[in-house]
Write a structure and sequence with these properties.
Helix content: 55-70%
Radius of gyration: 26 Å
Oligomer: single chain
Shape: globular
Strand content: under 5%
Largest sheet: 2 strands, antiparallel
């Protein structure tokens, strides 16, 4: 076998082999310290294969596995290659970090974690190259089970078991929707290979049914409303490297699935599909960022931030459908490029932030923002590298988060007059919602970074915090460099993404504009352009000029004195701005979104305690009624289980009589 696809298969087998080796000595940390870097080497190779396969012709192969007449069909094309590049790049850094992070006290033996971790990686890679519904669903369910066991690593805690159960439940609901989608796409032919589905022309409501089943199924894995409930519960429960892998990579497999079904397996795209996806994506983005703003747990904050970013990606996906359905290939290419670019960006900056959070958690044993602060002095490596991820996720130039959000905004601004008047009215509102979500995301990240790393330590125990180890620093540094490079060379990244545009849309963004290596102009230079090197030079120049002016010109006029204490000299670190204080304006403005519980002490309390919790109304409006209904039905069905053989024979007799009457 020649080509890149056998290399992908070899990488999958290699990860599975590393997982098996991990459990040979499950409690030996030395084995884990060697095998996780070995997994990182395989990830590097996979990223290289993905990069090389972007410009190559699609490759297919059939493996003699599975069931009779149902072998494994695999295919490597530009779409799969892009997401393999994302998987390999992010998992390289996360595996390096995991080598120094995992310890015996994580709740499970390190070797067992190694098995589950590498099976998780192998399953995600298999999802991306699957070319029939059978192997896709096997890989998808293996990915769900492996991630479930990783989420419930510390399974002795009831809250973690509950979070894992909720995740697995919603994952299986999504899997059923995906399976039904494939059932519609095969068009009654009984052939579940993707090649056969590409040749089926669906009529009537079948295409719409398949699309919305895919949107629901993959949306459950991505964390779209209203199937997002598992995400803010599972991420805080999982170890930090697992949270990074789930948020940075696993959520993108759902984006891959949406793109594969909509633009590859289906022969038509309808404009109102795009409107539905656009509206759902923007609602999810706003919902996620609003709830992130009021969180006091740093991992829950990042989990809700992931919901926001997935919403932005799905909004770009919906806009691409609208343009493609209205025969606007260039604008569809810009929107799809924004979706893919933001997927790659999110893999880097969100992995960086989750791993930095893991370092803080190991160093302080604290996850609550109200008990942290001042860690930039104790953990300078983690603090400065986390600052890169914070600025990137806030969408500030010249880092990577700005490029994809800028591209998506350009797609909105360039929208011409479309045949659907409703869409013409919706686009300006959607652009405003996008800008609001991005602005609130910057607000949230100021809160996150400021409360955790700046100011003074809020607890005395924080003076014992220590910086990350060598491998952990290396992983954080690589992710930070990725955020910088993806921001500085956007035309090169778009050139790589163009191969996916050519496959799915038949268009090229880079060739249509006037872009050079230092200037990005997706449509025309006179319409809009962005130059990351120039922005970087201006920023560095302003900083240097400010430093020169302050130190050379004004240095002799500086007078140092204690900060004004507002007439109250007995100040403590507890008087600093808190996470609750940062979130209070958002909580008041968007109070209808929250279900707020408050406990106000009475004036006579000798030890007053103030308590406030803002929770999700969708939980009480949607999930609690469903749970109660299921409990009632379960009790009714339980009445049939009498435990007496005579009753069961009576059921069989009644069923037989009913069947005879029906046949007769």
């Amino acid at each position: 076998m020649t080509g890149a696809l056998p290399g992908v298969v070899a990488a999958i087998v290699g990860w599975l082999a590393i997982g098996v080796l991990c459990i040979l000595k499950p409690h030996d940390l030395r084995v884990v310290r060697v095998l996780f870097p070995a997994g990182a080497v395989i990830a590097v190779a996979l990223a290289g294969i993905g990069l090389a396969a972007l410009a190559a012709a699609p490759q297919s192969m059939v493996l003699p596995l599975g069931l009779p007449d149902l072998p494994f069909h695999l295919r490597l094309d530009p779409l799969a290659a892009f997401f393999l590049l994302l998987l390999g790049s992010a998992s390289t850094c996360i595996s390096l970090f995991s080598s120094g992070y995992f310890r015996n006290e994580e709740g499970a033996a390190p070797g067992l974690l190694g098995l589950q971790y590498h099976v998780f990686l192998a399953a995600m890679a298999l999802v991306l190259v699957a070319d029939d519904a059978y192997v896709f669903m096997i890989a998808w369910e293996t990915m769900a089970l492996a991630s479930y066991f990783l989420v419930t690593t510390d399974h002795r805690k009831p809250a973690i078991r509950s979070a894992g159960y909720l995740y697995l439940l919603i994952a299986h609901v999504g899997a059923i929707a995906i399976l039904l989608c494939f059932g519609v796409l095969q068009g009654g032919r009984g052939d579940y290979t993707f090649d056969a589905m590409r040749g089926v022309t669906l009529g009537g409501i079948a295409p719409s049914l398949a699309f919305f089943l895919a949107l629901a199924g993959f949306g459950a894995k991505a964390g779209l409303l209203p199937l997002h409930m598992w995400l803010p519960e599972a991420h805080p429960a999982a170890p930090s490297p697992v949270s990074a892998l789930m948020s940075g990579v696993m959520l993108k497999t759902a984006i891959y699935g949406m793109l594969r079904v909509t633009f590859d397996l289906m022969h038509v795209q309808l404009w109102w599909w795009g409107v539905a996806a656009l509206a759902l994506g923007l609602l999810t983005a706003l919902f996620g960022v609003i709830f992130a703003a009021v969180q006091t747990d740093m991992k829950r904050l990042l989990a809700y931030s992931s919901i926001e970013n997935i919403g932005i990606i799905v909004a770009a996906f919906g806009l691409a459908i609208v343009f493609q359905a209205n025969d606007k290939p260039l604008l569809a290419g810009i929107a799809l490029t924004a979706a893919l670019y933001h997927s790659l960006n999110h893999a880097f900056f969100k992995s960086l932030l989750f791993l930095a959070t893991g370092s803080v958690l190991h160093a302080t044993n604290e996850r609550s923002l109200g008990r942290l602060g001042g860690l930039i002095h104790r953990m300078p490596w983690v603090a400065w590298l986390a600052l890169v991820g914070t600025l990137a996720i806030a969408g500030l130039p010249p880092l990577n988060g700005f490029v994809s959000e800028w591209l998506l905004l350009q797609a909105f601004l360039f929208t011409p007059s479309l045949p659907q008047s409703f869409v013409n009215m919706l686009v300006p509102l959607a652009a405003a919602a996008l800008v609001l979500a991005v602005a609130l995301a910057a607000y949230v990240m100021v809160k996150f970074y400021g409360v955790v790393f700046l100011g003074r330590p809020r607890e005395p125990a924080l003076v014992h915090a220590h910086d990350a180890g060598g491998l952990e620093r290396a992983a954080l540094l690589l992710l930070a460099l990725g955020c910088v490079l993806l921001g500085l060379i956007p035309t090169n990244v778009i050139g790589a993404i163009d191969h996916v545009n050519a496959q799915l849309l038949g268009t090229s963004v880079r060739a249509a504009g006037e872009s050079t290596w230092w200037l990005l102009a997706p449509v025309a230079l006179e319409r809009s352009s962005y130059s990351p090197p120039i922005v970087l030079v201006v920023i560095v120049g302003v900083v240097l000029a400010t430093m020169i002016v302050v130190h050379r010109v004004w240095h002799g006029r500086v007078r140092r004195a204690p900060a004004w204490d507002c007439g109250f000299p007995l100040q403590t670190p507890r008087m600093q701005d808190t996470a609750e204080g940062f979130g209070q304006p958002i909580r008041q403005v968007f109070e209808p979104f929250f279900h707020i519980e408050r406990h106000l002490p009475s004036p006579s309390d000798t030890t007053p305690v103030y308590f406030m919790r803002a929770s999700d109304r969708l939980w009480t409006w949607l999930y609690v009624p469903i749970a109660r209904t299921v409990e009632v039905l379960a009790r009714v069905v339980g009445l049939l289980q009498q435990g007496r053989i005579g009753v069961y024979l009576g059921y069989s007799f009644v069923t037989l009589i009913a069947l005879l009457l029906f046949v007769g």
